[in-house]
Amino acid sequence: MKRAHIWIPKPGSKFQRVQCKECGEESVVYSHVSSIVTCKACGNTLAEPTGSIAKTNGKILGSAD
Ligand SMILES: [Zn+2]
Questions:
Q1: Per the UniProt entry, what are the Gene Ontology biological process annotations, in alphabetical order (predicted)?
Q2: What element of type H or E holds 29?
Q3: For 12-50, how does the pLDDT look when each residue is reduced to its tens digit (9 = 90+)?
């Protein structure tokens, strides 16, 4: 039986829905990003890596799990 590769997230990590404070566009942002995440609509920075939980620059609407 073949097993699909299962990606195991870091403990405590999650996906969050973040609303861009500039344009209101909603994006799903991983809580432990390793690179800057920008808004796909306006290019505003939504999340920055900090080594642990990302710093988010938008309104967190909730979990996207
Ligand atoms: Zn935006």
A1: translation
A2: strand 26-30
A3: 788 999 999 999 999 999 999 999 999 999 999 999 999
User: Is 20 known to sit in a ligand binding site?
Assistant: yes
Residue 51 scores a pLDDT above 90: no
Task: Spell out which residues have Cβ within 5 A of ligand 1, the ion.
Answer: 20, 22-23, 25, 39, 41-42, 44
Provide the 8-state DSSP code for 55.
E
pLDDT of residue 9: 61
Q: Report which residue type is found at 46.
A: L
2 Cα–ligand 1 center, Å: 41
11 labeled part of a ligand binding site: no
Task: Give all domains of the chain, ordered by start, each with its CATH number.
Answer: 15-63 (2.20.25.100)
